[in-house]
Design a protein that fits this description.
Elements lengths: L1 H17 L14 H15 L14 H27 L5 H13 L1 H18 L6 H7 L1 H17 L5 H13 L2 E2 L4 E2 L4 E3 L5 E2 L4 E2 L4 E3 L3 E3 L20 E2 L4 E2 L4 E3 L4 E2 L4 E2 L4 E2 L8 E2 L16 H8 L1
Helix pairs in contact: 2-3, 2-8, 3-4, 5-7, 7-8
Length: 305
């Protein structure tokens, strides 16, 4: 068996040399997915003290616990930010990671204020919500938007890889896929949430409410002379203030603008702008309700095919 394993190892080593882009053995260390998992958990503890902890936190302990957590978070985040920066700038000075880290952590009070408005939007927008505690502990959208709002800060700082890894961590846990580049205003709420996709260049105004299955995506991709997709550019819709988008609707295109106070009905497929105060729905299809007990088996099969 040992000889066979040696042969397999040689084959694997040969594939490392032959198949590029799947390993990173000669350069610097990349950000760690395992480390990031732990960091995102710590970040949620930091943003919502007492809600992601196994034991209760008394107010008298809050100052010391916050400083302790801030120190641990800073040390680990600086390491991951540093590794990320080296991906696109191998000559990046070590001091740059610290500078980015300090600006990132300095934004946390503002991020928490935005999250406060998101919690209020959920409470006001969902008749099933009985308390802010229930929303923080059990609503997947809040976890997704909390991580996205933090990742967006790093995205604006030009940090590669790490912001996307953060939002994909949240995507895996919640089923909500929000790119870190998306700009999202205050009082944002996603009801239920499963299957929501929000693209990188999407801009969303204040007091917007989405339901499950909504996609704010790209209509098409420009290509260069060789047929390769051109990266960058505005590809995703802009959603105005106080817009509601109901389940399973798809809105595509970088030039598509949903005007303020508009409502997009369920299952709408939209690739054009609509003015403010619009209601967008499909005409209702004919609905028939039949008595199954009075239909023969052959008629039943014929109806469905």
């Amino acid at each position: 068996m040992e000889r066979r394993l040696d042969e397999i190892a040689e084959g694997i080593l040969a594939s490392y040399e032959e198949v590029g882009g799947l390993n990173n053995t000669d350069g610097h260390n990349l950000p760690s997915k395992r480390a990031l998992d732990n960091l995102c958990e710590q970040l949620l503890q930091f943003l919502f003290p007492g809600f992601h902890d196994e034991r209760p936190i008394h107010k008298s302990e809050l100052a010391s616990i916050t400083r302790e957590r801030l120190g641990a978070l800073a040390e680990q985040f600086e390491d991951q930010i540093g590794k990320s920066l080296l991906v696109t700038n191998p000559q990046a000075p070590t001091s740059l990671a610290n500078e980015v880290l300090m600006r990132f952590l300095g934004c946390m009070p503002a991020v928490r204020e935005l999250l406060r408005t998101d919690i209020l939007a959920a409470y006001e927008g969902d008749p099933a919500a009985v308390s802010s505690e229930e929303i923080i502990l059990s609503y997947p959208f809040l976890e997704a938007i909390a991580i996205q709002r933090c990742a967006h800060v790093l995205y604006r700082e030009g940090v590669p890889l790490l912001p996307r890894m953060m939002t994909e961590w949240a995507h895996t846990r919640t089923g909500i896929d929000i790119h870190p580049g998306a700009e999202i205003g205050e009082y944002f709420f996603i009801d239920h949430g499963t299957g929501v996709v929000i693209g990188e260049t999407c801009r969303i105004g204040k007091r917007v409410k989405l339901y499950h299955g909504v996609t704010l995506g790209a209509r098409s991709f420009a290509k260069d002379e060789s047929g390769q997709i051109v990266k960058g550019g505005k590809r995703h819709p802009e959603v105005g203030d106080r817009v509601t988008i109901y389940p399973n609707s798809t809105i595509l295109g970088g030039e598509t603008l949903i005007g303020d106070r508009s409502t997009i009905g369920a299952n709408v497929f939209l690739m054009q702008s609509v003015p403010s105060d619009s209601l967008v729905v499909y005409e209702e299809k004919q609905l028939r309700i039949l008595n199954k007990s009075k239909r023969t088996a052959s008629e039943e099969i014929e109806w469905f095919i």
